[in-house]
Specification:
alpha/beta, Rossmann fold, 41% helix
Length: 381
């Protein structure tokens, strides 16, 4: 679908909603089949409608139809009456505003619809095409390949120095690659670690990003690979979109024992709205909603189905840890607190005080301590 087709449709619908009324239509064109219609009129056994039994007409209205003054109306008389009645439609003269004002409302509505579609298309494009990070040669571990929805994903598997049957999959943020997770791998070096490039990122195949929805399939593929390597316990550490995708995969039954969620946005619409505000677009909340809808249309997905706030509440076995910087320009408020409160399973939270390049870089000591303690708990160690 071309990006501006929705704009035309929205504009036309708004104009139609405020536009020309239909007049002169007959009631008979909209009524139910005649026999069903008569069944609801409480006709007498002789098939006529008695005046004293009718709640349909006032006495004067009944007499006006009953020209023979028999006190009864036949089916033919009733059918003729309803077929000849006109639907008054909408009389512009009775409306509280003028036709000119209606036209202005229609045109304004069309303009707003066009604006929201333009902005929504721009913002959704930022998510769909974040800019592929150039593949970087692995600095450690073994290069491996994963398959997700028919796409080949680049990945690196690094075994722990001491043999273990526990592993963690690292899920990078949007616009990054597995190389952005090198420091996280060092924090969790006591486990087998799998870092991978999401679809449409780094060295992986794919031409579109969906903000976490289809990326959850990539996480599931990574978990399946780790299970296939003999790991009995598997957890995930994700940042931004990576955290959202990990939570979605856990909710869908990927088999994750724990998800360490760093800087996950509560819902894709929140992220879209934040992007609109960053561009100083007017009507940012509406623009965020429009961008989410347009992303779904352009990618043939239902993006809100991958919202973290919903997936956290649907977890059946996965414990969670939520963290973020207390001043994070990439999040709309305290998302970690919102997600923490939405969980029905054991969950933990820590806010790194301040603002920095990442939560890990802002406070590496406490970050490492929290991540290591969480996965020990998740793996029952």
């Amino acid at each position: 679908m071309r990006p501006f087709v929705p704009a035309a449709l929205l504009s036309l619908s708004l104009l139609a909603g405020c536009g020309v009324p239909v007049t002169g239509s007959h009631l008979s064109t909209n009524r139910a089949p005649v026999q069903n219609f008569f069944q609801g009129l409480s006709l007498a056994s002789d098939g006529t409608l008695h005046k004293e039994a009718s709640d349909l007409f006032t006495s004067d209205e009944f007499d006006a139809i009953d020209t023979a003054h028999t006190g009864r109306l036949t089916k033919a008389q009733l059918q003729h009456f309803f077929e000849t009645q006109q639907d008054p439609g909408v009389n512009l003269g009775d409306m509280p505003i003028s036709p000119g004002e209606l036209a202005i409302i229609g045109i304004s509505g069309g303009a707003i619809a066009g604006y929201l579609t333009f902005v929504g298309t721009k913002i959704s494009s930022e998510v769909m095409h974040p800019g592929k990070s150039r593949p970087v040669a692995a600095t450690g571990g073994t290069p491996v390949s994963l398959t997700s929805d028919g796409l080949t994903l680049a990945a690196t598997y690094q075994a722990a120095a001491t043999a273990t049957d526990s592993a963690v999959v690292l899920c990078h943020p949007i616009g990054a690659s597995k190389e952005a997770m090198v420091d996280y791998a060092k924090v969790l070096s006591q486990y087998n670690v799998l870092s991978f490039d999401f679809r449409n990122h780094g060295g992986s195949q794919g031409g579109v990003t969906t903000g976490g929805l289809l990326e959850s399939h990539d996480v599931a593929a990574a978990v399946a690979y780790l299970k296939g390597q003999g790991n009995k316990h598997v957890g995930a550490l994700g940042v931004g979109m990576g955290a959202v995708a990990a939570l979605d995969a856990a909710s869908a039954g990927a088999g994750l024992d724990g998800v360490f969620s760093d800087s996950a946005y509560t819902a894709l619409t929140d992220d879209m709205t934040r992007r609109a505000k960053a561009h100083h677009f007017p009507l940012s909340s509406f623009a965020g909603q429009a961008a989410t809808v347009i992303l779904g249309l352009r990618t043939h997905t239902s993006p809100n189905h991958g919202d973290a706030i919903n997936n956290v509440g649907n977890l059946s076995r996965t414990i969670t840890f939520f963290t973020q910087m207390s001043s994070d320009p990439n999040l709309a408020g305290n998302s970690a607190q919102v997600l923490h409160d939405a969980s029905t399973l054991p969950t933990f939270m820590w806010l790194a005080s301040g603002k920095g390049a990442s939560t890990l870089q802002l406070d590496p000591t406490d970050y490492a301590k929290n991540a290591q303690t969480f996965f020990q708990r998740a793996f029952n160690q």
